[in-house]
Amino acid sequence: MTQRNGDLLQKAGIIGGLMLLAYLVFDAIFPPLANPPELIWRTQCKNNLQQIALAILSYHDEYGTLPPACVLDDDGRPAHSWRVLILPYLDEESLALYEQYRFDEPWNGPNNSELAKQIPETYRCPSFVRNHEDHEIAATEIGQLTNYVAINDPEGLFDGARSVSNSDATDGFSHTIMVVEVHAHAVHWMQPEDVTEPEFLFDLRGLPGTRHGDEGSDSQVLFGDGSVKLIQPNIDRELFHKLITRSGGDPVRDF
Q1: What's the domain range around 170?
Q2: Does the pLDDT value for residue 207 go beyond 90?
Q3: 37, 99, 122, 143: most buried by Cβ count inside 10 Å?
Q4: Does residue 255 belong to any structural domain of this protein?
C-alpha cells in the first residue's frame, strides 16, 4: 500500500468517526431535530463504499490494475473474490484477516470457512444488518452477507478473472460504475459472486422500501474515482448501460 493511500485511509476513518460522533452529540441535545435513522444508515453506507473505493484504488496503485472480480482455481472455477483481495487495504484488522486466508483452497474451504464470521464492518450495509437483527431470522449466514457487489460485465470495470487497468477505461474511472449496493442479491462476503447488469436492475426495481428505511428502492453506486451517487429505480436502461461500460466512447457526465 502506498503512503498516500495509507494516509487517505486514515483520514477517511477519522472523518467517518467524527461524522458519527457529531450526530450522537446532536441527537443527545436536540433529539426531535436529529436525522431519522434511515438517513444515518445512508451516510454510513456511503462511507462504506468510499472505504471500499480507497482500498480498490490502493490495490490499483500497487499492481497497476483493479482486482479481478474473481480468481480462478486450476480447473477454471471461481475460487476467490475481489473483496478478499482488497482486505490488506481496508484497515489493520482486515490486513490481519487477509494474512490468515489461504489461496490454496477455495473461499469456502476448511480454513477459510473459519474466517467467515470475521466479516469487515465495511462490508456490512447498516440498514440490511439492522433490519435482519430485529428478527429471529438473523442466522449466522445472514451476518456473513454483504450488499456491496461489483457489476460483472465484459465491458465493465470488473470482468470475471480479467484485471482492468485505468488505461483500459477510456471513458474514465469517474464516469464508470465500479461497485453497487444491492438487497435481494446480497452474497457471502468471501464468495466470488457479484451481479450482472440485468440482476442489478431487477434488484433496483423489484424491492420498494427495502433500503435505508422506507424511502424507496433507490441504490447507492460507487464510481471508479471514489464518488458515490444515488441511482433511482426508474433510471433508463440505456443510460445505465453507458454508466457501467468502461470504453463505450460515450461517457455520461451527469445524470
Answers
A1: 3-244
A2: no
A3: 122
A4: no
